[in-house]
């Protein structure tokens, strides 16, 4: 097939399905079609493995000439004047950007219900959430609207929706992928990563977007190996750690059982597993919500009605302009985080909250380092339960936060983690989480591929 046909096919799927799924916020049809026609002229020998394939991009990744809202009213008409580094890399690899994908506002949430524009639905059961915050990215791939998407993961936002939607989602090592052009939520935790239908596609896409970038001082000067080369199927002698905290209290029976079943499969392929402990996991949620909200309160200060997007009308002076723009432009969850973050950074509370949380973060990181002295990967469920119903948790932020208990420690430690499908419960997918050492995505992919 030609690139033009592939592109057209993707838009056809979007038009057929997105009325139900509601994954896309903006389509790039005219430009993508023009691009696809040009691409058909490129000789075959110059085409890489991803050439001509359609991709959707989460709406917190800036795209020149395509409105980028972060699913917030405050950016309703923000038209970026440059492309994020990853978007350049997609184009270099020959991928065609089909459109922008719905998310929780500023990536704060676990269900995509915090979008100011629409609620994305889980393609497996439209009454259920797709997860979040990259819910649009996971749902679009699960529905077959696009074979590839990019999400971002600050505390689980790639892995949790991948798990809920039965697709493959990778949160790379912090620093592996440039954050230049990713609208910052919590800069010390945010990472962009690929969502795909299988492990091999995922490995190809991560290879394409990784690497040092002079525009992101936190991007790492570490060689990018060929991740696809590690898909050998051979995991003989691999040492797997299973944290008891990941199968214990608060984790549903279906999630627990599916992981035990997956471990049997891995054992039959020659791996060995043992139970370990990540003793500080119980502090991860509190630590994460404090640190990420603190960073967010600072990062979101730039949305003041002057520089980008929405601006409140009928105001008398500058202070009122700021206040009204932010009061009208931000949704409830974003305001909740800004207030929590501002409070914990204020002079009187800094030592008791922010500084303490930083110290606990170090302990959590050390838990992982200790386990990785003796094991190659850590395995557990991605989420305590399969996708919940739309509306079920919206009124209860604490229950919503608790959903992230198994994904958040990975971000705090900065290590990579993937979610791959590992069964169903009541017709809804379950995810297996495989966590690796810093910059060892290759081993994660090897295990994931052998299991798949
Ligand atoms: N659900 C988490 C939160 O609301 C994770 C978000 C994310 O990873 N972007 O903060």
TrEMBL record:
<comment type="similarity">
    <text>Belongs to the amidase family. GatA subfamily.</text>
</comment>
<dbReference type="GO" id="GO:0005524">
    <property type="term" value="F:ATP binding"/>
</dbReference>
<keyword id="KW-0648">Protein biosynthesis</keyword>
<dbReference type="InterPro" id="IPR004412">
    <property type="entry name" value="GatA"/>
</dbReference>
<dbReference type="Pfam" id="PF01425">
    <property type="entry name" value="Amidase"/>
</dbReference>
<dbReference type="GO" id="GO:0016740">
    <property type="term" value="F:transferase activity"/>
</dbReference>
<dbReference type="InterPro" id="IPR023631">
    <property type="entry name" value="Amidase_dom"/>
</dbReference>
<comment type="subunit">
    <text>Heterotrimer of A, B and C subunits.</text>
</comment>
<dbReference type="InterPro" id="IPR000120">
    <property type="entry name" value="Amidase"/>
</dbReference>
<keyword id="KW-0436">Ligase</keyword>
<feature type="active site" description="Charge relay system">
    <location>
        <position position="58"/>
    </location>
</feature>
<feature type="active site" description="Charge relay system">
    <location>
        <position position="133"/>
    </location>
</feature>
<keyword id="KW-0808">Transferase</keyword>
<feature type="domain" description="Amidase">
    <location>
        <begin position="5"/>
        <end position="444"/>
    </location>
</feature>
<dbReference type="GO" id="GO:0030956">
    <property type="term" value="C:glutamyl-tRNA(Gln) amidotransferase complex"/>
</dbReference>
<dbReference type="InterPro" id="IPR036928">
    <property type="entry name" value="AS_sf"/>
</dbReference>
<dbReference type="InterPro" id="IPR020556">
    <property type="entry name" value="Amidase_CS"/>
</dbReference>
<feature type="active site" description="Acyl-ester intermediate">
    <location>
        <position position="157"/>
    </location>
</feature>
<keyword id="KW-0547">Nucleotide-binding</keyword>
<dbReference type="GO" id="GO:0050567">
    <property type="term" value="F:glutaminyl-tRNA synthase (glutamine-hydrolyzing) activity"/>
</dbReference>
<dbReference type="GO" id="GO:0006412">
    <property type="term" value="P:translation"/>
</dbReference>
<protein>
    <recommendedName>
        <fullName>Glutamyl-tRNA(Gln) amidotransferase subunit A</fullName>
        <ecNumber>6.3.5.7</ecNumber>
    </recommendedName>
</protein>
<keyword id="KW-0067">ATP-binding</keyword>
<comment type="function">
    <text>Allows the formation of correctly charged Gln-tRNA(Gln) through the transamidation of misacylated Glu-tRNA(Gln) in organisms which lack glutaminyl-tRNA synthetase. The reaction takes place in the presence of glutamine and ATP through an activated gamma-phospho-Glu-tRNA(Gln).</text>
</comment>
């Amino acid at each position: 097939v030609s690139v033009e046909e592939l592109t057209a096919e993707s838009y056809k799927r979007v038009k057929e399905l997105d009325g139900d799924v509601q994954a896309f916020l903006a389509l790039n049809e005219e430009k993508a079609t023009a691009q696809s026609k040009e691409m058909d002229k490129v000789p075959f020998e110059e085409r890489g493995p991803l050439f001509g394939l359609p991709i959707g991009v989460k709406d917190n990744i800036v795209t020149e000439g395509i409105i980028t809202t972060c699913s917030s009213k405050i950016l309703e008409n923000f038209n970026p004047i440059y492309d994020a580094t990853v978007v350049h890399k997609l184009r270099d690899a020959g991928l065609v950007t089909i459109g922008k994908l719905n998310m929780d506002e500023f990536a704060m949430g676990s269900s995509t219900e915090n979008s100011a524009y629409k609620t994305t639905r889980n393609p497996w059961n439209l009454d259920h959430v797709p997860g979040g915050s990259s819910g649009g990215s996971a749902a679009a791939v699960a529905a077959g609207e696009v074979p590839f998407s990019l999400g971002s993961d600050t505390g689980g936002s790639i892995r949790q929706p991948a798990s809920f939607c039965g697709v493959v989602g990778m949160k790379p090592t912090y620093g592996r992928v440039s954050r230049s052009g990713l609208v910052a939520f919590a800069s010390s935790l945010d990472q962009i990563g690929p969502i795909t239908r299988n492990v091999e596609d995922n490995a190809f896409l991560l290879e394409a977007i990784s690497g040092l970038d002079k525009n992101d001082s936190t991007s790492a000067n570490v060689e990018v190996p060929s991740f696809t080369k590690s898909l050998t199927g051979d995991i003989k002698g691999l040492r797997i750690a299973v944290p008891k905290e990941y199968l214990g209290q608060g984790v549903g029976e279906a999630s627990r059982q599916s992981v035990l079943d997956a471990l049997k499969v891995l054992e039959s392929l020659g791996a060995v597993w043992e139970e370990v402990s990540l003793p500080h996991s119980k502090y991860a949620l509190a630590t994460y919500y404090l640190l990420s909200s603190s960073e967010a309160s600072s990062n979101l200060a730039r949305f003041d009605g002057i520089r980008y997007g929405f601006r409140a009308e009928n105001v008398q002076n500058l202070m009122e302009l700021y206040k009204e723009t932010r009061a009208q432009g931000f949704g409830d969850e974003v305001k909740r985080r800004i207030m929590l973050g501002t409070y914990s950074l204020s002079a009187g509370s800094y030592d008791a909250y922010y500084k303490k949380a930083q110290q606990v973060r170090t302990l959590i990181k050390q838990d992982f380092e200790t386990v990785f002295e003796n094991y190659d990967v850590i395995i557990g469920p991605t989420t305590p339960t399969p996708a919940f119903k739309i509306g079920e948790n919206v009124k209860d932020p604490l229950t919503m936060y608790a959903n992230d208990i198994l994904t958040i420690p990975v971000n705090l430690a900065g290590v990579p983690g993937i979610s791959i499908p590992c069964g169903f419960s009541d017709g809804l997918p379950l995810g297996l989480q495989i966590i690796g050492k810093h910059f060892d995505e290759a081993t994660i992919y090897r295990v994931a591929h052998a299991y798949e």
